[in-house]
Amino acid sequence: FLKLPPETVVCLLPIVAGFVGADAVAAALATRMDESPSLRIEVDIGMNGAGVLGSRDHLWACSAPARPALEGAQIRHGMRAAIGAIDRVWVADGDLRLHAIGDGAAQGLCGSGLVDAVAALLDLGVIDWTGLIDVEARDRLPAPFRSRVEMRGEEGALLLARVGEQGAERDLTITQDDIRQVQLCKGAIASGVAMLQHVASVPTERVEELMLAGGFGNYLSVRSALRIGLIPPGLPEHRIRYVGNAAALGAQLALVSEAERARAAVIARRIEHVSLAAHPDFETIFVECMNFPRPPLPSGERAG
User: Fold this and answer.
1) Which among 47, 19, 166 has a CA at the least distance from the CA of 99?
2) Is the dihedral of CA 266, 30, 71, 241 positive or negative?
3) What is the 3-state secondary structure (H, E, C) of the chain?
4) The whole model's pTM is what?
5) Which residue in 127, 142, 45 sits closest to 292, CA to CA?
6) Of 72, 89, 163, 303, which has fewest CB within 10 angstroms of its CB?
7) pLDDT of the residue at 48
8) How far apart are CA 217 and CA 7, in angstroms?
9) Residue 206: left (phi > 0), alpha (psi -120 to 50), or beta?
10) Could you give the CA distance from residue 184 to residue 186 in angstroms, rounded to a whole number?
């Protein structure tokens, strides 16, 4: 509890509707979306993936239940972003390379490392666009990965780090169920953005900028997020930027300025709430967003 003097004024920013709360309003306030002449998207990636799309002409917002997979929960060896969490994964010299927070022994996998790992596995062909770890097809993989793909119990898994690698005290794996959890999470966030674009009739090529917000979103690799389809795959990297904890910044602006608090109230009234569950097209869009982006076809080939 905060011990405050009796004359303390407590300010609460307005909500929009449903789970589109004061944090979405604060983020729109901080990023000045209501003043922008061009179309922009702000995505706050966390337990709930809140998104705002629009410009000074119109604003739309929705909230998608992103699930806690990207924050470490529901992942076999997931953990929060603390000392020992693998926060970056990449491929070099034909094998996986890992970085753990604090440069210490790897203890588990946090969200940014998980997104990196899935992106790398897609590039290598360890998992396909549907998310399947095809253990029986491991002979087609680069040599260092063949021994890393195996059955663990009744599900396929990739051995991310063996005992002793990166100081790991136990085998650290990414299982088939982990991949499915990532698909559910990223599918919710991606479908929320896709629904905003669908309702607003805004194709990706018209989006001038996508802003990644939130404490977690600020640490994501843009390249990895694009590769797994967490954000619109057709968006060029130079149109994506980090805006930090935009909701916290908006709250600070409202705290120190009556004019900003008044602007927040106007923004909340202007935002059109898009209810995902109530929209007839949401189920189809969500299912499509569950899959990963397909790799580009070789020159001269056509999709069947």
Assistant:
1) 166
2) positive
3) CCCCCCCCCCCCCCCCECCECHHHHHHHHHHCHHHCCCCEEEEECCCEEEEEEECCCCEEEEEEECCHHHHCCCCCCECCCCCCEEEEEEEECCEEEEEEHHHCCCCEECHHHHHHHHHHHHHHCCECCCCCECHHHHHHCCHHHHCCEEEECCEEEEEEECCCHHHCCCCEEEEHHHHHHHHHHHHHHHHHHHHHHHHHCCCHHHCCEEEEEHHHHCCCCHHHHHHHCCCCCCCCHHHEEECCCHHHHHHHHHHHCHHHHHHHHHHHHHEEECCCCCCCCHHHHHHHHHCCCCCCCCCCCCCC
4) 0.87
5) 127
6) 303
7) 66
8) 37
9) alpha
10) 6
Calpha distance 249→258 (Å, rounded): 15
Q: φ, ψ for residue 157 (rounded to 5)?
A: -150, 155
Which tokens belong to 202? 């805004």
What is the rounded distance in angstroms from the CA atom of residue 188 to the CA atom of residue 128?
20
Give the C-alpha separation, 201 to 210, whole Å.
16
Matching residue, tokens 């529901």 = 74
Q: Which of 67, 69, 88 is nearest to 79 (CA)?
A: 69
* Rounded Cα–Cα distance for residues 176 and 154 (Å): 10
pLDDT at 303: 47
pLDDT lower than 50: segments of the chain: 299, 303-304
Indicate the burial class of 253 (C-beta count within 10 angstroms; 0-12, 13-18, 19 or more): middle
Taking each helix axis as running N to C, give the angle between helix 176-200 and helix 282-290, from 0 to 180 degrees, rounded to the nearest 10.
140
d(CA 238, CA 152): 40
